[in-house]
Fold this protein.
Amino acid sequence: MANHQMKDWEIIADNLSKAGWSWGCVSALDSDGRTIWIADAHRDDGKRFIVRAEEKLTAFVELESAICARGGFCVDKLAKFLSALCVDRDPESDKGDNFATIEKIPSVRD
């Protein structure tokens, strides 16, 4: 029987699932031919987050951090640490060095 050691992004994805989030991830090429990773998480209560990053792990770390920082369920100690780093961050000051973009998609209710 093969012993599969989970990758870091798989651990985060598993924690998101355990916390009630549905998630997905896809890679794409941007207009300059660079690979970007897009990760998405949403719940039945209408909360949804989409993150773009240059690396798959970065996308999942940022996704977990965004959920925690914006009042979602913090799924582990790493998320709490990362949310503390970004709570006071001014999005306008990150424009030049931003390696990931976090978006909260407003919910649409009937």
